[in-house]
Amino acid sequence: MDSNSRRTAADKTLDVLEALAEHSSVAELAQATGLSKPTVHRILQTLTQRGFSRNTGSGCYVSGPRILTLAGQFLQQLDLPGQVRPALQELQERTGWTVHFALLHGDEAVYAVKVEGSKPYHLASRVGMSMCLHSTSAGKSMLACMTDEAVRALLGRAGMPARTPKTHTDVESLLRELDHVRTAGYAEDHQENEDGVIAVGAPVFDHLGQVIGGISAAALAYPGGATGDFPEHGALVTDAARQISLSFGAPPHRSDLRSRSARS
Fold first, then answer.
1. Which residues make Cβ contacts (< 8 Å) with residue 236, sequence separation at least 6?
2. Which residues span the domain enclosing 116?
3. pLDDT over threshold 90, residue 226
4. Cβ(202)–Cβ(238) below 8 Å
5. Residue 76's pLDDT is what?
6. Last residue of a domain, one of 54, 75, 96
7. What does the pLDDT look like over 29-71, one tens digit per residue?
8. What b/e string do you get for 101-129 counting C-beta neighbours within 10 Å, with b at 16 or more?
9. Which one, of 108, 106, 129, lies nearest residue 218 by Cα?
10. Which residues pair with 209 in a beta bridge?
11. Nearest Cα to 253, choosing from 13, 22, 33?
12. What pTM does this model have?
């Protein structure tokens, strides 16, 4: 018995519906799902009748309005802080550092969730506080998802204020660092946003694979944190960000910087 014969009708329908996000013709959908063209065509007819797909009139299909309706209804029910908190809590327990989730908002980001670290101190960050992108680890990880042209345009509007003596204030030097961020999968903050505070951050993506925010783990440089922890903590932050991205519906190949860079 081959794998296709073990797939239920629901499996096949969902496979075609998911493939519609990246493919449009019957032939492409058949190849992507491993189904026969007649089967794909029959499923598309049902999806079209129910509003989940739409025939463009040129033999190709795209997602239908019913998908947007359902997505909007589910988004209204979404408890964003509650959805990300378990992953952030686990990250905090594994690193011992203070963990944040920030949402991209225009040319800056805003802290949406904070989980205090296990050390006997509290960082100045708070929920609702805005943050610069060029001087924070989460912010730089978000910038790394953009093209160099987009980064230049954004920083041209927002500026690059020197938060500390170590802050990047030159676009070209920051762009060079962003190349390393894309390779590593996470960004580092070496006391660039606040004196005495270090951090690592990674981006979070939505169901379209677009960057919507980032998470970070931060600690005092001395005592309580050391840059020698960056590789280990960077990997943990990257994994947590990917977990959150997938929970938001991000495609696996667009759910972290490393997978995106590998396909570019």
1. 91, 94, 95, 217
2. 78-263
3. no
4. yes
5. 58
6. 75
7. 999 999 999 999 999 999 999 988 988 877 789 888 888 777 6
8. bbebeeebbebbbbbebeeeeebebeeee
9. 129
10. none
11. 22
12. 0.71
Residue 79, C-beta contacts closer than 8 angstroms, at least 6 positions apart: none
Write out the H or E segment, with its range, that includes residue 54. Answer: strand 53-55
Q: Do 205 and 123 share a structural domain?
A: yes
Buried-exposed string 193-232: b where 16+ CB fall within 10 A, e elsewhere: bbeebbbbbbbbbebebebbbbbbbbbbeeebbeeebbee
CA-CA distance, 86 to 113, in Å (whole number)? 11
Identify the bridge partners of residue 109 per DSSP, sorted by sequence position. 104, 131
Final residue belonging to a domain, choices 51, 75, 99: 75
Rounded CA separation 256/145 (Å)? 9
Q: Residue 155 belongs to a domain with what CATH number?
A: 3.30.450.40
Crossing angle for the helix pair 9-19 and 26-33, to the nearest 10 degrees: 120
